[in-house]
């Protein structure tokens, strides 16, 4: 039976979902959370739809076995290709993410919005539907962020390669008149500081971590599952990785150490537990 103190399960194809976890920790400091970075199979954006569904179900089942009370699919690609299947086969609340097409369309003054996403997200019916609903309001300039996920998975959020890729992908958007860019992957939300450094305030950046945190908060209240508040203590966060190399696991630690919540306080990393989970492909 699910209890108030049960954890919230959060997963991504790798490290990108840490941007969502960061927002959740800021809003829900009393909640315990378990994060899985499926780095051994990243990036999902280059995988088949069937593979993405298989991996998402395997990870969700792992969370259920651990007694998770809510699952957050902190991956745009997995959300677009697997969340309906997960909701059809599991009984606990499941929250996904999707590119912020509507808020971007409302925010743009120029009428041009850039969309930086994975190839799988860009080809998804869900994204195409969202764009179709708002393309009378503005024009969307879409770009697959090839190579960015791989860099982030190595713990690289800055550097010459990141700068080159971002410049290559975002400059055409600026030239097209975009004043708003949707970071259509939770991985890409981690690059917001680098984008600011390269482009200043040229773009309003739209990410979904804050909206996901609000949705999780509302679901906890709706289902009576919010953690009991204990004075002086916060929820525990555990990190798991399917990474096959020490370098990949170290990258997770490095990104975690570099993130901070909106309170400005860095995440403590002394208790971070790295373990192999679901290392074998599911058939």
From TrEMBL:
Pathway assigned in UniProt: Cell wall biogenesis; peptidoglycan biosynthesis
Protein residues bound to substrate: 12-13, 44-45, 76-77, 186-187
Catalytic activity: L-glutamate = D-glutamate
Single GO term (MF): glutamate racemase activity
Record: active site: 75
Record's keyword terms, sorted: Cell shape, Cell wall biogenesis/degradation, Isomerase, Peptidoglycan synthesis
Gene3D superfamilies xrefs: 3.40.50.1860
Enzyme Commission number, as recorded: 5.1.1.3
Highest taxon, organism lineage: Bacteria
GO biological process, one term: cell wall organization
Entry-linked NCBIfam families: glut_race
Function recorded in the entry: Provides the (R)-glutamate required for cell wall biosynthesis.
Family per similarity comment: Belongs to the aspartate/glutamate racemases family.
PANTHER family reported for this sequence: GLUTAMATE RACEMASE
Protein name, UniProt field: Glutamate racemase
Organism from which the protein derives: Trinickia dabaoshanensis
Gene coding for it: murI
């Amino acid at each position: 039976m699910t209890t108030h103190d049960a954890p919230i399960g959060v997963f991504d194809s790798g490290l990108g979902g840490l941007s969502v976890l960061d927002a959740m920790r800021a809003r829900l400091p009393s909640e315990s959370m378990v994060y899985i970075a499926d780095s051994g199979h990243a990036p999902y954006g280059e995988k088949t739809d069937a593979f993405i569904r298989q991996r998402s179900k395997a990870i969700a089942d792992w969370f259920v076995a651990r007694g998770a009370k809510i699952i957050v699919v902190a991956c745009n690609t997995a959300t677009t290709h697997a969340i309906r299947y997960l909701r059809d086969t599991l009984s606990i609340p499941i929250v996904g993410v999707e590119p912020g097409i509507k808020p971007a369309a409302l925010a743009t003054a120029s009428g041009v919005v850039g969309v930086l996403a994975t190839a799988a997200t860009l080809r998804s019916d869900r994204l195409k539907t969202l764009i179709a609903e708002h393309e009378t309001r503005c024009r969307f300039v879409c770009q697959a962020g090839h190579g960015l996920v791989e860099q982030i998975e190595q713990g690289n959020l800055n550097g010459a390669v990141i700068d080159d890729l971002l410049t290559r992908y975002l400059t055409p958007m600026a030239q097209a008149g975009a004043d708003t860019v949707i970071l259509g992957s939770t991985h890409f939300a981690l690059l917001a500081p680098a984008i600011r450094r390269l482009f200043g305030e040229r773009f309003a950046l739209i990410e979904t971590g804050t909206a996901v945190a609000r949705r999780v908060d509302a679901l906890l209240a709706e289902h009576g599952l919010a953690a009991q508040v204990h004075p002086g203590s916060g929820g525990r966060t555990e990190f798991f990785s399917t990474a096959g190399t020490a370098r990949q696991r170290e990258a997770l630690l490095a990104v975690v150490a570099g993130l901070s919540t909106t309170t400005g306080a860095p995440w403590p990393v002394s208790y971070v537990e790295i373990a192999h989970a679901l290392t074998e492909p599911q058939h």
